Amino acid sequence: MKTNAVIRPARLADAADLSALMRRTFIAANGHCSSPENVAGFLDAAYTPELQAREIRDPDTLTVIVEQDGQWAGFAQLRWGTTPPPVVSLLPTVELGRIYLDSAFHGRGLAAQLVSNLLAAASLRGSRSVWLNVWQEAAQAIRFYQKHGFEIMGSSLFRVGDDVKDDWVMMQALPTA
User: Fold this and answer.
1) Residues paired with 78 in a beta bridge
2) pLDDT tens across 124-163, in order?
3) What Cα–Cα distance (Å) separates residue 68 from each residue in 24, 26, 111, 144, 158?
4) pLDDT tens for each residue of 86-99
5) Which domains does the chain show, CATH number per domain?
6) What is the DSSP-derived secondary structure letter of residue 25?
7) Which residues fall within 8 angstroms of residue 76, CB to CB, at 6 or more apart?
8) What is the pTM assigned to this prediction?
9) 143-150: which pairs have CB atoms within 8 A and are 24 or more residues apart?
10) Residue 162 near residue 125, CB atoms below 8 Å
């Protein structure tokens, strides 16, 4: 398994390319979850270059890009500024808001490296836990998160356009110093 990845913070100059990667990976993972109109609306609301630039500048958001052999393989995002669901009681906490790999890079161990990097970043900033939402029908993603220490704590709703999806809220406690 090849895992010589470079994980680095996103830069403002990355916003347009990052937006394109986010759109591609969301469609690959979730494009089938709703109507084409709902998916397109979601993409236009969540993954624009302007929004990515704003998130890159946000001190309460850490967006990282994972590269392998000079190619962008994926990205992830930690968000300290979001309000956790009530089932997440181990505070302070941070949301793992996004984590996606381009399908060409699946099976190389990059996602595990990315999660490890994110958990370390969360700990360094003083978070006691990390939480995330995952679509209840995304069995592979749920298994991945469970393999990496996340537990289902409850449920939430997620909107793709006007289509409401059932998500699991998962959390992992971080080691304390």
Assistant:
1) 62, 96
2) 999 999 999 998 988 999 999 999 999 999 999 888 778 7
3) 17, 20, 12, 21, 31
4) 999 999 999 999 99
5) 5-125 (3.40.630.30)
6) H
7) 63, 64, 66, 96, 98, 99, 100, 114, 117, 118
8) 0.90
9) 144/111, 145/170, 146/170, 148/112, 148/115, 148/172
10) no
